[in-house]
Amino acid sequence: MSNIKNDCNTMQNHIKKSKSNLSVFMYTTNAIMFMLMTPFVKLHEKHFNKVEEYVNILNDYCKENNLDIKFDNFYEVQNSSIMYSQTQLGSLTIKQYEARIKYLNTLNENIESLKGCI
Fold first, then answer.
1. pTM for the full model?
2. Splitting the chain (118 residues) into consecutive groups of 10 residues, what average pLDDT does each group show?
3. CA of 44: how far to CAs of 4, 16, 115, in Å?
């Protein structure tokens, strides 16, 4: 049980770091060079991928212990055959990041629920 609490705390740490790096990237103007934003994107992806790993661990734990808590995975659809204008692409990017932030907030709430059950 101590191990799952550590997993919860570690996952919440990755959620916090993922959200902070994404927020820096998301609200940066287009005038800033992409090279300045790249580290934030890479850091966000690193922590976001760790969050996804822990989602599977916590889902297995909840299933084994018959807990009624489900952690959803985040899915993105990619279609390279669609062409977007620059303004459409910017709007879609912001919506995508907002969806990720919402997903991470929901995960954090579910982790708090799980920690209350342990």
1. 0.62
2. 81 82 61 57 78 86 86 68 62 75 86 82
3. 23, 10, 25
